[in-house]
Amino acid sequence: MFYYVEGTVALLKQGLAVIDCGGVGYACHASQNTIGKLKIGARARLLTYLNVREDIFELYGFIDEEEQSCFEMMIGVSGVGPKAALSILSVAPPDRLALSIITGDEKMLMQAPGIGKKIAQRIVLELRDKMSKEQLETASSVSPVAMAAASGGVNHTQEAVAALMVLGYSQAEALQAMEGMDAAQMEAEEIIRQCLKKLVKQ
Which among 91, 83, 93, 36 is positioned nearest to 60, based on CA atoms? Predict the structure, then answer.
């Protein structure tokens, strides 16, 4: 079991980073998020995940523990394989992925090649309650404006978060108030109303 590989970046291309470790090149499948932070000729350390299927061994590399954790959570979802998980991480790095899951933003996930509506819905449904405290805090650092721009528009949950922030609540407080709601199926006004009921009681 490889925990990480460390060495000189020998090759970078779409979805692949080769790390030269003592004269041996380790080919690691990687997201564009990871590849974008590497430079050929520079030293790098990638955390790894070894995928074994039949007689094929595939190594996946991650720039940090946060990305690795998101990858491992996603491949635990039925129908989501390693390649699909990397595809999602390439369009939605960990902070945006966490916010997409918390707010039920399926459209963001569907921007990844090969990810359809059913898989996106399954990821949101199965992972919403598995987000760690750290991932929730990371998600709260993404502005609603940036999230809307990335997903190609504003959904009701993002509208609600923005409105609550105008009322003086932090984004973290707004997201916490949404926990347990089926926000993806609600209008923005109803989300705001339900959140305010929770927030005024605190």
Answer: 83
